[in-house]
Amino acid sequence: MKNVSVIVPVYGDWESLSENIKHLKKYISRFSKWEVLFVNDCGPEADTLELLILRAIKGRRNFKYFRNDENLGFVKNCNRAAFELCNQENDIVLLNSDALVTKGALQNMHKILYAQSAIGAVCPRSNAATIFSVPMKPKPGTTYTMKESYKIYKKIRNKLPEYYESPIAHGFCMMIRREVIEEYGLFDEVYGKGYGEENDFCMRIRQEGWKCAVANRAYAFHYKARSFTEETRTEQVRKNEMILDERYPEYRGLIREYVANTHEPN
C-alpha cells in the first residue's frame, strides 16, 4: 500500500479547524510517513488563519502549510493540492476543515481502499454524511447530536461488516487511490465552490469499472458547512445538483437502491 497525503482545504472557521488539527495531531504520528497539508484558499480571514495554523503545526515536519496566491474556490483548491502540492506517489484523503477523525479511522479507510483491487474511493461513517450517517435511517423528525450519533455507532460497529460497497463516497472525508486520479483526474471545476463534485467524481470512475466503499470501522465527526452562509450553500447545491442529474440520470436511483438494500442492526 502507498503512503497517504491528507489534504485539508482551508477557507475560514478557525473554531472547527483548530479541532481538526488537534485530532490529526493525535492520530497521525509525527514520525509517520503520511503527510498532512493545510491549503489556505485566501478567504476573508486568510492572514489570521495562516498565523494560527503555523502556530498549531509547529514542530510537526509531516504537517505542511500552503497558501494560494488568490481564492481558487474549493474544487480548484483540492485539484491544486492533489496534483501540485502533495507527494505525487501518495494516495490522498480530502478532509474538510470541519471534520474530526477518530482513532484509527484513516488507517482503517486505507485498509478498505485495498480490500479489493477495484475499490477506488472510501469514506467513513459519521454523524452527518447523508447515506453514511449513523443512524442511517433515523425516525422521521428525529435529529441526533454528534455525541448521540457516536454512541449509537459504537453500539453497532462490531455488528457491521468491515465495509459496504456503495455508489459514491462522501466528500467530507474521502480517501482515493493515486492511480485513479492519475487516470481520470479529480474534481470537475464546473462545480466551482463545491457541492456535488465528489458525487460526479464517483459516478465518473464508476463508469470506468471502479467501486466506492464505506468503511464501517472508521468514524469521523462532521460539523457540516460552517464556512458558507445558508443562502450561498442553498444556491450552490441547487445549481450543482442540476449538473449532476443531467450528467448521471441513474444517480438518484442508485442512492435509493443503496439505502433500501442496506439493513443495519439496532
Structural summary, described in words:
- The protein is an alpha/beta fold.
- It has a single domain, classed as Spore Coat Polysaccharide Biosynthesis Protein SpsA, Chain A.
- The chain contains nine helices and nine strands.
- The chain has helices at 14-27, 46-57, 74-85, 105-113, 146-156, 178-184, 197-206, 230-247, 251-261, and strands at residues 4-10, 35-40, 63-67, 91-95, 99-101, 119-126, 163-166, 173-176, 211-222.
- Strands 1, 2, 3, 4, 5, 6, 7, 8 and 9 form a nine-stranded mixed beta sheet that branches.
- Strand 2, helix 2 and strand 3 form a beta-alpha-beta unit.
- Helix 1 (14-27) packs parallel to helix 2 (46-57).
- The longest helix is centred in the last third of the chain and has 18 residues, at 230-247.
- It is globular and about 45 Å long.
- The model has no long low-confidence stretch (mean pLDDT 95).
Q: Measured on Cα atoms, how large is the radius of gyration?
A: 17 Å
- Label the CATH architecture: Alpha-Beta Complex
Instruction: Tell me the count of domains.
Output: 1
> What is the mean predicted local confidence, pLDDT?
95
State the helix count.
Answer: 9
N-to-C span? 34 Å
Sequence stretches where pLDDT stays below 50 over 5 or more residues: none
CATH superfamily (homologous) name: Spore Coat Polysaccharide Biosynthesis Protein SpsA, Chain A
CATH class: Alpha Beta
Proportion of helical residues? 25-40%
The biggest sheet, with number of strands, parallel, antiparallel or mixed sense and barrel status, is:
9 strands, mixed
The helix/strand class is: alpha/beta
CATH topological fold name? Spore Coat Polysaccharide Biosynthesis Protein SpsA, Chain A
**What is the general shape?**
globular
Indicate the proportion of strand residues: 15-25%
- Number of DSSP-assigned strands: 9
Give, in order, the helices and strands.
Answer: EHEHEHEEHEHEEHHEHH
